[in-house]
User: Fold this.
Amino acid sequence: MAQQWWKESVVYQIYPRSFNDSNGDGIGDIKGITEKLDYLNELGIDVVWLSPVYKSPNDDNGYDISDYRNIMDEFGTMEDWEEMLKGMHQRGIRLVMDLVVNHSSDEHAWFTEARKSKDNPYRDYYIWRDGKEGLPPNNWGSFFGGSAWEYDEESEEYFLHLFSKKQPDLNWENEKLREEVYDLMKFWLDKGADGFRMDVINLISKTPGLPDAEVTSDSAFQWGGDYFVNGPKFMDYMIEMNEEVLSKYDAMTVGEMPMATPEDGKRYTNEESGIVNMLFQFEHMDVTSGPGGKWDQQPWKLTDLKKIISKWQNELHGTGWNSLYMENHDQPRSVSVFGDDQQYRVESAKMLAAWLHFLQGTPYIYQGQELGMTNVYFDSIEDYEDIETLNMYQEEVMEKGTKTEDVLKAIHKKGRDNARTPMQWNDQEHAGFTTGTPWLKVNENYPEVNAQKALSDENSIFYFYKNLIRLRKELPVMIHGDYQLLLEENENLYVYTRSYDGTTLLVAANFSKETCELKLPEILNGGKLLVHNYSGVANQLHNESNMRPYEVKVYLL
Ligand code: NOJ
Assistant:
């Protein structure tokens, strides 16, 4: 397996709106990030993935871009960005930008031109179709509710938007559009960016004819994924992008790919013919979803998580590369979902950290995860800001008459604002995030959960992460080792080994509130204790021991 810097790195994701506000307007900004570079350096991360900072009307907090080459006013200026990048590079931190090119904003100049008339030169940058007898061109639903089509009165055609109607899909069939995308990628790489996280990149190629989706529910709109996930020309476009742009730079790429399977993972990330370095898959995030999908949250089973993770670990070993994540700006806080955000918050946050960082792949830490930040439980919809959440609420409560409290319960579990509450820097007003009024309410646990407190406590979750990041630099087995699952059927304990070059790591993690007996094969004995989240753990591995609630222990054998 080839050595690559991005395999040895740990990535930290910044959601700029919620990270740190330097000018008191209640919105995080780029200068705010620069102010915190020493904090990131202390943690020891290698790469920052920065969610979009480009000009945007913020229908979807920057994932609707109106100018790909300029910085959003609320976030600052291009000079601020350059200063931030310099500060990162001086500290040996690389910067990965967000590339959102499945769609733009409807306020992008391309779209304002395109909607002027059918023969406008930019018309074909987007996907336009005639309606069918007063209905949209097909029955596809949008990810954010309702039809995936919006009627444009002026030109009397519909345009496609897989996300909000302010996020029209770009037409990748158009060579000119593709050239524009490649140019803007070069623009940022030439300015010194070190790579891209590619937003829903496997949705860019749509099946010609845009066929109706199979009707699987009584809703007016259906899941059209068969006709746009890993579409027919997806590979061709990505090969072209590699030839035109990526092959000319030492850039890291991670593709966000809904519905990706390990087969896709191999195809897209292998070293010979892959198109990205690694991808974000969603299977393990969906382990809590019931038959009704994302908002139908159900108790989850550890054995299901084991199956999914093990499949990805084994399939990609030696043939591709995993990205390892349990949180991002679209997901709830991992300690609230997979751990315990009350009594065992610290123990379970550390357990999840160790369990994830010893798997094979590049680990991602989402801002605040290193503090064990938790979900929020706002009791009024007025306190929420996320478009997906608000649309779902509107549809369920206003249109279908679902009980408000049931909908709020679902939002408490899965809403995207759980991850977007301001970063908790200290126990001062607004958690030190802003001197103004924060754009989204701060989690009320900030007096207890904050960076200042973490930095002054050598046993904090922060230093636990710092140690994991440091170990990665010292132990090649963390990067190269193969993966073997033990105790497959156990519903409380997740136990695995990683082996490489005569070294074996044994990782044992208790995902439950119970004290459990850990019984290992006789040969797993001895070695030395490497990582633990409780005191009083044996320095050598014994094949029979107890695991306390959310305990994790890692031995080097
Ligand atoms: C995935 C992003 O992570 C999410 O925040 C966004 O809403 C959609 N893609 C659309 O860009």
User: Anything to note?
Assistant: The mean pLDDT is 97.
